[in-house]
Amino acid sequence: MNNPKQSANRRSFLKSAAGLGATGALGSVLPASVLAQNPSLRSPDPAKGHVFLSEPYLQYVGPGSMTVMWVANLPSYSWVEYGESESLGQKAHSVTDGLVDAYNRINKITLTGLKPGTTYQYRVFSKEITEFKPYKLTYGNTIESGLLRFTTPNEQADTVSCLVLNDVHDRPDTITHLLSLKGSDPFDFVFLNGDLFDYQTDEQQLIDHLLKPCSAGFAQEKPFLFVRGNHETRGKYRGEIHQYFTNPQGKPYYSYTWGPVHFTVIDTGEDKPDSEPVYAGIVDFDAYRQEQSRWADQVMQSAAFRKAKFRVVFMHIPTHHHNNWHGPMHCQQLFTPLFNKHKVDLCISGHTHKYDVHEPVAGQHNYPIIIGGGSKDGTRTLIKLKADRKDLHLLMLLDDGKEVGQYHLTAKR
């Protein structure tokens, strides 16, 4: 016997589905898993047609490669055409286990076999898939970007320079403003050192508050690298954020060498105990930080680390000069002995919202700790780092352009 309530719900569902079909909102019925991971697909604007939700943005993966990412509003087959001249001539798409990645919106395509220190031009394409049946695939419109360019990193280069931002906290105008302070100095990449958001809500937040200002400011031509802060671990979209970034080694923590500098990136996790009621029993950051300490110990014994002229660590929560909460103290206990043992030259952090330059302290941390500012006007900072094979210079600017910190290191090896 039919339940009247169930029948009414079914009629309501069928009416809604029919409405979607009439407006052509999706052109096809998406799997529930896709809708769950990408809420913005539930009700796209039919008037938009097929469009890019984000412009292309670059992510650095490793020697001889560059990853191009972008987000389209409809499921597509996507690719990159690239080359050393405007004629391009080469094409790349993403393949997983023999299947070309398609019927997706978040595109992540790695170009490999690139020459180091070489400028390439590129253009991205997304061809809408309007119907995906077992033996029939139907394409719709193709959209493409303008002609863009990037220069590949050279691990053997004599110099490297980067910009560092932290604790933006859902203020995209901060990214735009701080980047305007960089002046005419060249830079190779931007490092985003955590807490770019207050918490993770949905895809639109990621696009509007990070991807758009980065693409408009630099990321179509210069890559950025990202590490989570404690705020990126919060909110219902926390598990999806990784889809929008690509790190070396494919994990939230990683290492890479660029020119004379070896960079180690630590994902410091939450700042409160795992047992804190607000986490509702669904975090395990103590074990995660311990995992990273074992990994970092191995990295810092590697030839790449030992031979580097300078050894720099990025981590959102600093090992010292913090509020003594559980997460910061755990970082201090795990990582300070490692950094001292392996002679880390510099640690760059955020989190405290109190910008400062902390000299090494004998018996505590044998390395300087640079802490970037906060999210409020008058506390926001841009860190500029540049190094050659003899010297490393760091400069920290306040959001009014005033210099509020600097550090200089001379190569010891």
Short description:
The chain has 7 helices and 21 strands. With 413 residues, it is an alpha+beta fold. The strands form 4 sheets. Strands 1, 2, 3, 6, 7, 8 and 9 form a 7-stranded antiparallel β-sheet that branches.
Order of helices and strands: HHEEEEEEEEEEHEHEEEHHEHEEEEEE
The best one-word shape is: globular
How many H/I helices? 7
Q: In percent terms, what proportion of residues is strand?
A: 25-35%
Mean of pLDDT:
90
Portion of residues in helices? 10-25%
Category from helices, strands and their pairing: alpha+beta
Highlighted features:
Purple_acid_Pase-like_N; 413 residues; six-stranded mixed beta sheet; single chain; disordered N terminus; Metallophosphoesterase; seven-stranded antiparallel beta sheet; 21 strands; TAT_signal; signal; alpha+beta
Secondary structure elements and pairings:
Elements: H1 4-23, H2 32-37, E1 52-59, E2 66-83, E3 90-92, E4 95-96, E5 99-100, E6 102-111, E7 119-133, E8 136-144, E9 148-151, E10 160-165, H3 172-179, E11 189-192, H4 203-219, E12 224-226, E13 254-258, E14 261-266, H5 285-299, H6 303-307, E15 310-315, H7 326-341, E16 346-349, E17 356-358, E18 369-371, E19 381-387, E20 391-398, E21 403-410
Parallel strand pairs: 10-11, 11-12, 14-15, 15-16, 16-18
Antiparallel strand pairs: 1-2, 2-3, 2-6, 2-7, 4-5, 7-8, 7-9, 10-19, 13-14, 17-18, 19-20, 20-21
Helix pairs in contact: 3-4, 5-7
